[in-house]
Design a protein that fits this description.
The complex is a heterodimer of chains A (585) and B (278).
Chain A lengths: L24 H10 L11 H9 L5 H9 L18 H14 L1 H21 L2 H12 L5 E3 L14 E6 L2 E12 L7 E6 L9 E6 L8 E8 L9 E12 L3 E2 L5 H36 L12 H27 L5 H26 L12 H12 L2 H12 L3 H8 L33 H15 L5 H25 L12 H25 L10 H14 L10 H14 L14
Parallel strand pairs in A: 1-4, 2-4
Antiparallel strand pairs in A: 2-3, 3-7, 4-5, 5-8, 6-7
Chain B lengths: L8 E3 L8 H10 L1 E7 H10 L3 H5 L3 H6 L3 H22 L8 E3 L5 E3 L6 E7 L2 E7 L4 E7 L6 H8 L2 H8 L3 H21 L12 E2 L5 E2 L11 E8 L3 E8 L17 H8 L13
Parallel strand pairs in B: 1-2
Antiparallel strand pairs in B: 2-6, 3-4, 5-6, 7-11, 8-9, 10-11
Helix pairs in contact in B: 2-5
């Protein structure tokens, strides 16, 4: 099987999909600079990264490399001097880092982008330029969240800002702020109104200019069991004065700004942490094929290896569709963004546990070949922020369900096909166009459209027939959801029906299936692995089983086809995502 | 980081409770264990008019099970899970959708503030709940006859074998049984059941997870414990702490942020983000 045709003839490049214009140059450069992760002598390999993790230190040499490579410029929009043009490209540039070490990626890192996003979204020109300067000069920005419901250590407690002549006085503390001990610049979500409601908080940019009065005090470092090397530090603000010009957007915009700008992290987190699981799946392939006749794993591991690969492709399909949606249809991206962040980190954790069984005793190894597994198992739950993180996504999805059921599902027209073409050129991403209020639901329209087209064609074989049947299953699920969600009470307040939480879970899984179908259809017609139905059938049957939906047996040979691809890619050092990128090791 | 402390198991004889101990353990320790006998819960299975709602998607499996004892035990176990979870979430049990991961581990759809695990043997049922991370429970009869020669080949690491050989003969059987239940509990916490090779990991005599060569396998994020239950069973528990220092409040009513909910209910008038718009 040849998947890695190289039609454009460029050295070191290949195209897995028919639309992919090739790996971004900066990603190629980073992958080469970081080198073979399994080489014990590589100062940026797993062994060195594990040493730093053991010592609870940041991997200084690798951070230095990333600084030299100008990675921080990737977090800064193009119009203020950076290289951020679209988020799909950013995810590809970050994958070489996240394939090796999630904590490095967060700590270096991408948390600066998460913090800066509200300034890119609603900041004025002066604020945007000041923050761009900080990042381009090698600095970091940390986010100081407000306290949300069921908050964990990272989200618990909050700051208060009270009016003072010419500005605000900030007081309060936060238990765990990443990098608080190595930056002076914070994007603070502070309470500016005693009343709860949509206008309770405001965003203030702190430290981009020297603080005139008051004290920004660093408290103890918090030693976390995951991301052990990352610097989570307590922060206390004592009568810190900020001028009115520090307010990002308008006073009272904090909650809506979070809803708008969190869409970026909601799509990006699954789209980059999957690279870590990609790395572990390749370790599991190595463990399962070592000293095996013909390099074939034992029969009992076929399901886990092929299944986790299918899940990675599903995760990528959903994440990349979300990242592309932020450029292509920013007015309608928020549902997908919340759904991908809600669904995928959890699914990836489940995958890691499946791989724990394949790795067996090697999973406890601390050496360069397998040591990354335990580290990822510790880091991954922190990356998604656990229940607090999912509850934020549920708070977006749950209130929309009745309206979606009544006015969007089975009515919204299909989105543009470009949405589902990973790697195809995108219009420049503009933070300012992000909203949290679109009334259409694009992905359900795609699901229905693909299901209809599959049903209208004579099946080209058992795999097509299986895909058509699975697509119908998900359309049926959407029909059931429509009936149940339309029956939920519409509330203009903060009350919600507990049963809506389970319905939102089901809805998010339907969107995952829709993204797979959209990406598959956009690729179909070629002869690449992604254009054939096998991966989509396996991915959809796993999503269907998670829904508890009746899922038929897989056609014979389908699992073997997906397994052959994962073995082939591992052998040829290609990434186990939609792009099949060439890797350094 | 504090070591994981496993709560002592609580006997809950009927759906009506008492449940306050479960809420207290969950809030203070991050986990809670409940046990009962299925015969104690059987009257509720037989008399509740809401059995179908309570079983939800499991209703079909219940109806399809031909053996009455197996059917009732299945229903009693689902009721135990749902009532235990309902106590933690402070919501009616029939609102909960008990779903299953691909490898079979049960979870509560839409409510990831709680993870859970179920085990039963003979007439006892046990449920573990955790708000800090994965949890697995395994219950076995304490007097279960253990064939050392057989188990040695199937479940013990070389280091464990060595340690057992050094024990007085009378303590070997109970020690192996404890190891077995710990391995089952850990494997269930990972959602792997029997797929996890039991010779691929081990436990120290103090109950800490180790690689087969005896080296420490984790950095304190897992807690393990074994309790005697009803004087004739052993209940082992594996509980993970992902380290996020999660909220003690696990109730449904408070889980969705009021700020976000109110902002979603009142989108900006122009249908788009307004602030900073060019």
């Amino acid at each position: 099987m040849t998947t890695f045709a190289n039609p454009d003839g460029r050295a070191g490049r290949h195209r897995t999909g028919i639309w992919d214009d090739g790996e971004p140059e900066h990603a190629v450069h980073l992958e080469a600079a970081l080198g073979d992760p399994f080489d014990p002598d590589n100062p940026h390999g797993h062994q060195a990264l594990l040493h730093a993790d053991d010592a609870r230190e940041v991997p200084a040499a690798t951070e230095e490399l990333l600084t030299r490579a100008g990675l921080a410029a990737e977090f800064v929009p193009h119009d203020v001097g950076g290289r951020l043009t679209d988020l799909e490209r950013l995810a590809r540039v970050l994958r070489p880092v996240f394939r090796r070490d999630l904590a490095l990626g967060y700590g270096f890192g991408v948390t600066s982008l998460f913090a800066a996003s509200s300034v890119w979204t609603a900041g004025d020109e002066r604020q945007r330029r000041a923050l761009a300067r900080v990042l381009l000069d090698g600095g970091r920005v940390s986010i100081v969240h407000r306290e949300v419901a069921h908050a964990n250590a990272i989200l618990r407690n909050e700051l208060r800002a009270v009016p003072a002549p010419g500005g605000y006085l900030l007081n309060g503390r936060k238990d765990a702020v990443i990098n608080a001990d190595r930056t002076d610049v914070f994007v603070a979500y502070a309470r500016t109104s005693a009343e709860d409601g949509p206008g309770s908080h405001s965003v203030l940019l702190l430290g981009a200019e020297p603080v005139r009065s008051g004290e920004v005090r660093r408290l103890e470092r918090v030693l976390t069991p995951g991301m052990r090397g990352a610097h989570f530090t307590g922060l206390a603000l004592l009568d810190v004065f900020l001028p009115e010009s520090a307010v990002v957007g308008a006073v009272g915009d904090g909650v809506t700004l979070a809803l708008r700008s969190f869409q970026i992290s909601h799509c990006l987190v699954p789209g980059i942490v999957l690279a870590g699981v990609d790395g572990v799946l390749r370790q599991a392939v190595r463990a399962a094929t070592e000293n095996r006749p013909g390099g074939q794993p034992a029969r009992r591991w076929h399901r886990a290896l092929a299944g986790v690969f299918a899940d990675l492709l599903a995760c990528d399909a959903m994440a990349v569709t979300g990242l592309r949606a932020l450029s292509l249809v920013p007015q309608d991206a928020y549902l997908l963004a919340a759904a991908v962040k809600y669904t995928m980190p959890d699914l990836l954790r489940e995958d890691l546990e499946d791989l724990a069984a394949v790795l067996g005793a090697r999973g406890y190894d601390r050496g360069p070949l397998y040591g990354g597994f335990q580290k990822l198992a510790r880091d991954l739950p922190v990356a998604g922020l656990g229940h607090s993180g999912t509850a934020v996504c549920q708070a977006v999805l749950v209130p929309q369900l009745p309206a979606l059921a009544r006015t969007a599902w089975f009515r919204t027209p299909e989105p543009p096909a470009e949405l589902f073409r990973p790697g195809a050129p995108l219009p420049a991403f503009d933070h300012r166009r992000l909203t949290h209020s679109g009334t259409d639901d694009l992905l359900t329209a795609t699901l229905i459209g693909v299901a209809e087209r599959l049903g209208a064609q004579p099946p080209e074989g058992p795999q097509h027939a299986a895909l058509a049947a699975l697509a119908r299953t998900f359309v049926e699920e959407l029909r059931v959801l429509r009936a149940r969600c339309a029956a939920l009470p519409v509330s203009g307040s903060t009350a919600f029906d507990p049963q809506a939480c389970a319905l939102a879970d089901r809805y998010a899984l339907v969107l995952a299936a829709a993204a797979c179908l959209g990406v598959w259809e956009a690729q179909s017609g070629g002869d690449s692995f992604l254009s054939r139905p096998a991966w989509a059938v396996l991915a959809l049957s796993r999503i269907g089983r998670r829904l508890g939906a009746p899922v038929p047996d897989l056609p014979p040979g389908l699992e073997a086809e997906v397994l052959a691809e994962v073995l082939e890619r591992s052998l040829r050092r290609r990434s186990l995502d939609l792009y099949g990128t060439e890797l350094a090791g | 980081m504090d070591r994981v402390t496993i709560a002592a198991p609580l006997h809950v004889p009927r759906p009506a409770g008492p449940w306050h101990g479960v809420r207290e353990n969950l809030s203070q320790l991050g986990n809670a264990l409940v046990y009962t006998t299925w015969s104690e819960w059987l009257p509720s299975v037989l008399t509740t008019p809401r059995l179908r709602q309570l079983l939800g998607p499991d209703w079909d499996r219940y109806r399809r099970t031909p053996d009455a004892a197996v059917r009732y035990r299945f229903a009693a176990a689902r009721l135990l899970i749902k009532y235990t979870a309902a106590a933690a979430l402070d919501t009616p049990p029939e609102y909960l959708d008990l779903a299953y991961r691909l490898a079979g581990r049960p979870y509560l759809r839409g409510f990831d503030q709680i993870e859970l695990s179920l085990s039963h043997t003979g007439d006892v049922l046990a449920v573990g709940l955790s708000r800090t991370g994965r949890i697995g429970v395994d219950v076995e009869p304490a007097d279960r006859f253990v064939r050392l020669d057989l188990l040695r080949r199937q479940i013990l690491t070389p280091v464990e074998e060595q340690e057992i050989a050094e024990l007085p003969e009378s303590r070997r059987g109970p020690h192996v049984l404890r190891l077995w239940t710990l391995k089952e509990a850990y494997s269930k916490a990972l959602g792997q059941g029997l797929r996890l090779g039991f010779k691929q990991f081990g436990f120290s005599t103090e109950g800490r997870l180790r690689a087969p060569d005896g080296s420490s396998a984790t950095r304190g994020e897992w807690g393990f414990d074994t309790y005697p239950v009803m004087e004739r069973y052993l209940l082992s528990v594996a509980c993970h702490d992902a380290g996020l220092n999660t909220a003690g409040d696990t109730s449904v009513e408070t889980m969705l942020d009021r700020g976000f909910l109110s902002a979603m209910a009142q989108p900006p008038a122009d249908g788009a983000g307004s602030a900073g718009r060019p």
